[in-house]
Fold these 2 entries.
Entry 1:
Amino acid sequence: MDLRLPSKVLEHIFSFVDSNEDRNSVSLVCKSWYETERRTRKKIFVRNCYAVTPEAVARRFPEMRSLTLKGKPHFADYNLVPDGWGGYAWPWIEALAEKSPSLEELRLKRMVVTDECLEKIAASFKEFKALVLTSCEGFSTDGLAAIAVACSNLRELELRECIVEDLGGDWLSYFPETLTSLVSLDFSCLDSAVKLSDLERLVSRSPNLKSLKLNRAVSLEALGSLLRLAPQLVELGTGSFSDKLDQEAVSKLSQAFSELKQLKSLSGLWDVHPEYIPLLYSVCPRLTSLNLSYATVQMPDLVELLSRCSNLQKLWVMDLIEDKGLEAVASSCKELRELRVFPSGAEDLDETNVAMTEQGLVSVSEVCPNLESVLYFCVQFTNEALVTIARNRPNLKCFRLCVMEPFSPDHKTQKPLDEGFKAIVEGCKDLQRLSVSGLLTDKAFQYIGTHGKKIRMLSIAFAGESDLMLHHLLSGCESLNKLEIRDCPFGDTALLENAAKLETMRSLWMSSCFVSFGACKLLSQKMPKLNVEVIDEHPPETRPDSSPVERIYIYRTLAGPRLDMPEFVWTIHKNLEIGVSNLAIE
Amino acid sequence: MSEFLAAEHDYIGLSEFPTMEATKPTSDNKTKTTDNNNNNDDDVLNFKATELRLGLPGSESPERVDQRLCSLKSSCPVSGAKRVFSDAINGSTKWVFSTDSSAVEDIKPDVPVKEKKSSASAAAPASKAQVVGWPPIRSFRKNTMASSQKQGGGGDNNNNNSETEGEAKSGPEPCLYVKVSMEGAPYLRKIDLKTYKSYVELSSALEEMFSCFTIGQFGSHGGCGRDGLNESRLTDLLRGSEYVVTYEDKDSDWMLVGDVPWEMFICSCKKLRIMKSSEAIGLAPRVMEKCRSRN
């Protein structure tokens, strides 16, 4: 009796399996499940563009409709990865144009995208619907024009914090009059003003438009007319919020805002003038997401605004909110799930005028039961506060604390913050993402290794004392997937002892540590499934194997060493002259 | 665990590196032990030891020269031109990255936590260098905040409470990131011009960043009247190394750095480029013309 289900039945069942993690599990059950699953998977996520070749992906998933790709390592966001390192979108787009012409959606993060790439997309994918570029660079507004003019079924065009060569605002005018399918448009990172009349016409012929994020050049007055054309918006990113408006214009704008009955998310708000904040009051009660991180608004005005946001789940704000403001937020926004507090630009920490300390976060943790994701920049912290936060919020999933001065101890006791972070990892058993800061000894990492069993991503800077630190992490954190470390004093031993661990992780980044060139070579030899990239401006022959390297990026890959490495990336594969190390490190 | 420790390999070549021998006490200027098993709560962290200080080569320095820094310097085999820290460097940075050519950028900001607005406050911002990528804020955010603070400075009260109308020095200052490229260098740097107060500081920083590429040596660095240098000596310094520093100004002209007053320079500088003297010769006449037309 054949107990196997017919593949048609399997396909039908698998169509209900959405998450790729589940689909990955499904594909491991047996060959026929693998085959059925791969033929039906439409959304593909490749979280490291060098882990696998585009051809392999296209071959495995013939029905691919949506591809999400990530390029550079996370620390590229902070200028730690030199320009020219890699992360090029072109090989992917070229391969997909040939092998997966039915591709509809492309989501790229931290990749180099050129105008050529955009033109190729426009020319090759007839059903193309969505382009979302996050932290990408390398293209100009001409490339956008190519997309606008050719993609007749375009639904989403989102540029999130990209670095774009801005040749003017004409690109928007290339959307044809026949394009009526737009659902989401985000050009908030561009500088140049687009032609308002073209934008208005685009908006008015897009009845499905749900998300509109304008750039700074769009004035407050223009915003009014746009809102009147799109009262159905669910997400709005305003432009500059600081023109001088006359009374009539203000009341019209107020009216327009109050018509936004579906609005759930608000962002933009650059240069917010305090007197215009009341314009937002009408939408506050419905908001679930509010990004004030570019709004240089003072605490009293922030509190006025936030006290009306009883349904807020996600709040991004600057430290201008101060402890007092966060206390107020805690009492008004009980549904809060995610809080991010950014520094307001006080580079000179001596002269910070902002009264925000650890107390603000403690208040929020006390009162908001659903708080699970925190990113908090501040000047000082204490173990006591961390212990309290952990006790209040064992449900934390993401905890990123950035005490801005490196090596800052507990400002009350002058002790390291080891015990505080111990409480965090011990108490928050579901913690998946952790960034530590402040003065930390190896003990802190012993605690993290012992308790942080679910941690997938860990970011460390200016911490620890020795190799033990790294050893604790690599041997203890079972779920560790991404580890990024800068300016920590550990070296080769821990890395080599835990080499096998690296194949179970997506990537490891280390910069300004004490890992030697010899160790990198050795690791590279021992572990053929890893790409061990040394990013260093000095040719390795000019110094001994024992000298530390500047930066290392290690990632697992099925694709072998990549072919697009620049001069300053050294590997034993590319740079055969380096030779094989006979340095024996225990 | 013990074999793990015993196998420590002092690859940096230091005679005594506390982190490699976890049971030994650290060097003299720290009282904190690094013994992991020691839960001695009486050990008060020697706060001074963890205090971050910075001085650019040539600047005055109090007591602290980190012993490890000195020994690292001497034992490190990396090219000497690059490692030119003056003897007077304030080096009590805890972790020294001896071969990191971006050392100036990696040196921690001069923010003495205890010593708030002392008379050193004038000196503190002046000698502060930027640690690359710290605090971890995306460039997009940094640039956006910088330009919004610039825009908002015109008397509107929509800025930080530290900026009031008419106040000459506002609190948080905007960043002024410019790219610095150099002929032959594999990649660019970005620096915040606002962290330097004079051409002298800028030139020191550039020296540190790019000296690995220069063929000639710069002049001596140990306090030889650095303070007395005026702007026009900048090109003298660099001429010896066959390179000059140029910048692209607001009008997209390339000018020699050092000819206009510092304040004017940072307002008009968009990009910096270190190029070979031979290629920069053509710049000089235009610079003169510009200066004339400005004056």
Note: Chain A touches chain B through 90 residues (CB under 8 Å).
Entry 2:
Amino acid sequence: MLPLRFRRVTMSARVLVGVKRVIDYAVKIRVKPDRTGVVTDGVKHSMNPFCEIAVEEAVKLKEKKLVKEVVAVSCGPQQVQETIRTALAMGADRGIHVEVSGKDYETLGPLQVSKIFAALAKKEQADLIILGKQAIDDDCNQTGQMTAALLDWPQGTFASEVTLEADKLKVVREIDGGLETIKIKLPAVVTADLRLNTPRYATLPNIMKAKKKKIVNVKPADLGVDVSSRLEVLKVDEPPQRQSGVKVETVHDLVEKLKEAGRI
Amino acid sequence: MAALFKARRALGMAVGHGVRCLNQLAELPELHQMMRQTCRDYAQKELAPIAAQLDKDHKFPAKQIQELGGMGVMAVEVPESLGGAGMDYLAYCLAVEELSRGCASTGVIVSVNNSLYLGPILKFGTEEQKKQWITPFTTGKKVGCFALSEPGNGSDAGAASTLAQQEGNEWVLNGTKAWITNCWDASATIIFATTDKSLRHKGISAFLVPMPHPGLSLGKKEDKLGIQASSTANIILEDCRIPLSNMLGERGMGFKIAMQTLDSGRLGIAAQALGIAQAALDCAADYAHKRTAFGALIGKLQFKLADMAFAIESARLLTWRAAMLRDAKKPFTKEAAMAKLGASEAATFVSHQAIQVLGGMGYVTDMPAERHYRDTCITEIYEGTSEIQRLVIANNILKEYQQ
């Protein structure tokens, strides 16, 4: 017989999953001529791969009947609704579109997004937030951590395995030294790493069902969040062109060349 | 006043429907875009990397077919109550095109199961037959096939020499069917056999036969030019006995069932041809980009790419339109024949030109261009040769102008 505490938490558990719309991983990125950013017009966008893994984990928990509802959340302009619909087609129950557009969207970063998530977590009475560990466009790897801090919730980042044990979450984390296993109490924030799972392909019946699922529009102001950025992007450049190397005949020459280049 | 209101409403609905049709040509509805993307992702990640090996090994992609079954792609038009995805024919054509872009063999396996096997049972089967012969074939664990052609007649389908004789409470089938796609991997087939020779094509009936079954044996697998991962062979019937309840539709309805089935089936093949053509264009265009870094882009190369893209896009719109007409339950025979003719001829043209663009690299197995070229040839032959398509179109046109 499960303890009452555990049953209360998990039977009505609600999971918020963040999904970010990013430039598709296969696209060759080009810097805008004015060097203020990268070209996004007419470029293929899709759900951030780590966010796909996050959605998959949430849906799996729901299929195991460990959570009751999965809510997909995305911040951005009208187009992010496509990303939310993809999450719905994978099995999320409903979506929340936090409208951020124009200049605000260009400068939207982890601090603002984590404030939005913290506010939504309180509003929706979420028990678990699952995010991708980082987005493949900015590679910040900050949103999960900041969200946990703002909510004063425990965090399990770089998760490669998540198990619900009584009222705790056992998270196996991928760290530089290997694997670390921690136990954290719900409510908590988890960020998904590559090996957490293999995201499913949306099935045709689920795509049809996704059409009927609701997406609610919300403004950051409604959540009491100020999305103005404290950061200013000065310039964006391509990585330096790869220079051709120099061939040397002997180890002696190699040492000389390295000394010349000031490397040793 | 009421009459005026009714008329305006009817006009509004007609315009709305027309506008929706036009909108669909300009941009697909969101539902279709999503499923197209999901099929494209699957094809790129799961099919394209193994397509060359499947072709070399002549290997049926059983795992992938099961995964596609799980996604609902093996039974797109079948209602959810019977285990299908419950989507429309346009969605099905999009799915076949995207899958064929990854692997042409997988495309034809999906197409034959959907259009040639499930299609006629859905349309002409009894409720009992649907439960028995459709539901198990929606998951990808079992596939079906369609046996119309014979060694002695392909285009002349009305001259079926396979016989079906009633003996008590059984039908006894005797004869040979040729060129049957999927047959070595299938668990059921629809056989067309003559029940009344004197009635000629009106004396042909359709039968559902499980596989394996006593009296039904398979010929050796054909060693084909392309689509090697899908099996093709003869089906030999020697005193093959099946219950009377296995007749599909009514006695003598076989030819009609076959022709109507092929009308739809040829859209599936058109979609397959489009997918292969698109893959060939992707290959050529990508290669053209890389080659220009080392030398000047030959003017004729640009024109080639333009011609290739134009051929594909034109055929694609024809295919979509034919599918939408079918979904709207309007006559679509002429448009379907045009789509199949257009798409298959575009595919053979594009795949040939893709080899030209790649030059020597197009001729070797290191690049997929040679496989696309081999795969496209069959699209002009099966489910109605290009010559037959022209006959169908011509007949329809002459009828239109007959008054």
Note: Confidence is low (pLDDT under 50) at residues 4-8 of chain A.
